[in-house]
Every structure is written in C-alpha cells, then in structure tokens.
Amino acid sequence: MFNGALVEALRVENLPNIKLLLSRGASILEFGKGEYGLLCVLRRFNGDLMRFLVEDCGITLPTQWPGKMPHPASMFGALYLAGASIEDVRRRFEGVKPYIIWPEAFALGPISAARSGSPVLVRISLENGGNPNKMREGYQSALQYAAAVKHDTSKSIEMMKLLLEYGADLNFYQRGLKLGGTALYKLAAGSSITQNGLE
Predict the structure, then answer these.
(1) Coil vs helix vs strand at 121
(2) Taking the chain, what is the end-to-end CA distance rounded to the nearest angstrom?
(3) Is the pTM of this model over 0.85?
(4) CATH class label, 73-199
C-alpha cells in the first residue's frame, strides 16, 4: 500500500517520510513506482541512505537475495551513475559496499555494467571481484555486451580493454544462446570498432 510512496521518498532522500512509511508497513523489498526500494538505494550507491535504513530505521537486509527482485548485479547497471567520475563512483561505492552482502552481485556485476555502457561501472565491478567470464542463463558475456555498444565506440573499447585485463575470454560462447556469437565475432562484425581497434 505504501510501497510506491516509499520508493519516491527513497529517490529524493526524504528521511522523515522514509521512516514514517516504514513504520506504517512499507517495505524496501516490495515493488512500487517502477522499482524495488532496496534496488533504488543500491543502484544509486547511496551508502548514507543504506546506513540510515539499517541503523535508524531498523531494516534487516535479507541474507538471501529475494527471488522476486531483479538480480542484485543489476545495481552495476545504474544509469544514475553512468556520467559520474571514477572518483565519485568509487567514493559512493565504498559507502554502500558494506551493505552488499550477496556475493552474486559482485560475480555478475560486469555483465550489468557492460550492458549499461559504463566503463566506470565495469571498472568498479571488476575491482570488487566481478568475474569477466561469469554468465547468467540466457545472457551474453560482459565482453560480448561491451563489443556490441554502438553509440560510443570509445566507451566500448575502454570496457573491452578493462575486461581483457581482468581475464575475459574473447572466444567464450554460451551454448544455446542465439544472440550473435563470441565477443571476437562481435568485434569483427562491428566495423566502427574494428577500425579503431584494440591495442
């Protein structure tokens, strides 16, 4: 009932309303206004707000990620942070990191970050244990997503370099995936990318 209002209050960081809505039964684990409250905070890497929820509002984070919610790695696909500097994203991430208690968020972070087209988020996810070759069923690898970015070739190349530095496999292919072959294949198919090259 109050979950939509809670998500709105989380988005604008209205602390008194957040506390009031939680006391009236709203939950950060429920959907409202287009997203789940917990992901609303995590996608913004908002450590201060997480601290407020846990310490001042008494929220207990679930030890198992709720199956009804999008994968926790989706926090690394946060377009809210895509234009921020690496220093700002790193500072914000360090604030929220103690509250990210689900290992799968880190392992699959590079996929979400590459899908969003953000080299900064790819770097942060890799620096914190992201696996450049880890796959989710039905998804491409992070390197395949990075190679497929068409709107900004320089970002695509930067993400691919980062992923390769961390051990991404150019020839990795998930059987049964009908999304266009290996990252090496995507590189060859993308003329703007191959013209600029990877050094």
Answers:
(1) helix
(2) 54
(3) no
(4) mainly alpha
